[in-house]
Specification:
The structure is a homodimer of 370-residue chains. With 370 residues, chain A is of the alpha/beta class. The first copy, chain A, has helices spanning 9-13, 23-30, 49-58, 71-81, 93-105, 120-128, 145-155, 175-184, 240-246, 257-268, 270-293, 314-326, 350-369; strands at residues 36-37, 88-91, 111-115, 132-136, 159-163, 190-194, 216-221, 234-237, 297-298, 305-309, 329-330, 342-346. Chain A folds into 2 domains: 9-46 and 271-369, Aspartate Aminotransferase, domain 1, CATH 3.90.1150.10; 49-269, Type I PLP-dependent aspartate aminotransferase-like (Major domain) (Aspartate Aminotransferase, domain 2, 3-Layer(aba) Sandwich), CATH 3.40.640.
């Protein structure tokens, strides 16, 4: 007997880990704000002004619940993607959709395959539903699709995660490679294909959407190139039976009402998206140039950030990150062996990259001197 | 073998039910909008104009993720409630927090006690995590706290749900009765006390908050009296160890960034809240008068809606609801035996209640004539 309600054995076993500490928590601990917020792969270029206006317009309607079917937004997404509305489900960001996808397929002891150092929130959900994360090291700073395939087969795993383009390296596979990977998977293995960074990738990175494939779930978001991380609005695309399964467990009124208005306005302003993608590409180039000017090696990136190889071990890269943070520049870094030699800098406006450029030499000197 | 990934046995067993069909879906099916939206217990009085302004101001910052700790909002809530920040967790509406609370304590076969006809989304989550709903009939149109207690003991149930004030009846227990109920529960039974309608209840309805009680979780929201249903922002208050358990499973970046700004502004404008509560009370009185003028019996209500006893059986009340909907008045009704003689009408501005008043005689005639 205990003197309080008992958690389920699974809940009891879970650590109270937080996948990421937010920049706001760091600001509170430091007692002062960051001058450059380029650590969370947000888009400092922000959303389209039309989206901002649509959100302001929607503010007066927030006394209403959202349409639980998210019909208008799904309709617009389906039209854009060339699929049926029944092939699309909208959720509280990719994080919320990953929660649901894992919950549908993972229970006690289920092996789930991912890459060592890939998106920690996915692992958080796998562990949270009792699954067992089987992590395959990156190869040449890319997710190792042959290695993933081999481990899926060895473990008879019902789910495998691939982000393309990849976070935290910024690397990518071409569409043909992803299609080869998907085709080689057992029919009973669900490929969770996280395309959060799809809009910033080179043409030919995203495979055509094929909803006849029953074991591929595509995940996309308004958080990155669309500049709407705070909206919490993502979508999943797949076979209609797969998408229908989300209805069994999703919180039907879970999506903020403004997300629908903002998402519709964002989709409608593809000119802005194209311009934002251009700005992001220019910012990537500038981050790479800042790295090179400081003797560091930027990794090629198809995303809205650049991983910078600091040229030594993980301990050194950690010092570089800490020195940047001490200089009011919010950046993050991968922690997995092999990737941990890098720091990760998000694309942002010139004013923020000016600060990065100004502080990087001092941060490196600090790191070398410690 | 199947030709596709297999859902977990639990997920496979779940129906693809939707707890509520939204008014938007009805509008799409009807091909025309409702003239009065008084069915979902939203507040047509809306949020404070200061909240609307705060949301419009926040629109330009939506490129940032929320603070995953929701620190400022939790801080403000804790100060208002007289508890520590560690006693408060913010989530994606009460629906999202119910998902988490159930997931922490309910697994395969766990008996969970609620009232027959109480909040269906709670049941949706219980079933969704493999629990077994044990439902106790209402007594005299109130949740039967002695009956709930008796069934908790019989089932040795680790969780019991009580909404006070209650949806869908509008009834309430006084604080002393709720405290007696909580004190009588086994220490190992978690009382999920849904106080979504707490702000509109008479003084003396909500027990003082006592976070030393380890088996009571209080749930509140900005959706009802604060007029922010579309925001998806609720909060749970309890013992710090209980609240800490939510960290194990919640989606840390799940709350929309605007929710923090709007919630803070809403809390800061208590004058508006008081005025809104007054408007809601006046609207309740008017709904009751409309019911009585049509020979129907309004139930007393501590909420932002009124259940109206249509004086015959459930089939008749269903016809009344359908006739109102056909006349472009969106209302809902309870479906549980005993409660199903009622329709449920949400408080709203006079313009919407004018439409209700105008259409009710015809709707009743339609229902009687069918």
């Amino acid at each position: 007997m205990t003197d309080r309600p008992r958690l389920t054995p699974l809940a009891e076993s879970l650590p109270a880990t937080v996948p990421f500490v937010g920049p706001e928590a760091q600001e509170r601990a430091r007692g002062r704000p960051f001058r450059a917020r380029i650590g969370a792969n947000e888009s400092g270029f922000g959303p389209s002004p039309r989206v901002v206006a649509a959100m302001a317009d929607a503010a007066g309607q927030m006394w209403k619940y959202c349409d639980p079917e998210n019909h208008e937004l799904r309709d617009a997404l389906a039209a854009r993607l060339g699929v049926g509305i029944d092939n699309v489900v909208v959720g509280e960001g990719i994080d919320g959709l990953l929660n649901l996808a894992v919950r549908l397929f993972v229970s006690g002891g289920t092996p789930v395959v991912t890459s060592l150092g890939a998106y920690p929130t996915f692992n958080f959900h796998v562990v949270g539903f009792g699954g067992r994360v089987v992590a395959v090291p990156y190869a040449h700073d890319r997710e190792d699709i042959d290695g993933l395939l081999s481990v899926v087969r060895r473990e008879n795993a019902p789910m495998v995660y691939l982000s393309n383009p990849d976070n935290p390296t910024g690397s990518w596979w071409e569409a043909a490679d992803v299609e080869r990977f998907a085709a080689a998977l057992p029919a009973t293995t669900m490929l969770v294909l996280d395309e959060a960074y799809g809009e910033t990738a080179p043409a030919g990175t995203l495979p055509p959407i094929d909803v006849s494939r029953k074991n591929v779930l595509r995940l996309r978001t308004f958080s990155k190139a669309y500049g709407l991380a705070g909206l919490r609005c993502g979508y999943a695309v797949g076979d209609a039976e797969l998408i229908r399964a989300f209805e069994k467990i999703r919180t039907h009124y879970g999506v903020n009402r403004m997300a629908q208005a903002a998402g519709l306005a964002a989709l409608a302003d593809q000119d802005y998206l194209a311009a934002a993608v251009g700005r992001i590409a220019a910012a990537r180039a500038r981050i790479a140039a800042i790295a090179q000017a400081n003797g560091l090696s930027p990794l090629p990136s198809a995303t809205n950030f650049v991983a910078i190889d600091c040229g030594r071990d993980g301990a050194f890269a950690l010092k570089v990150m800490q020195a940047l943070i001490a200089r009011d520049v919010f950046v993050r870094k991968p922690m997995a062996p092999g990737l941990d030699r890098c720091i990760r800098v998000s694309a942002g406006p010139d004013a923020e990259l000016d600060i990065l450029a100004a502080e990087m030499p001092g941060a490196l000197a600090d790191a070398r001197g410690n």
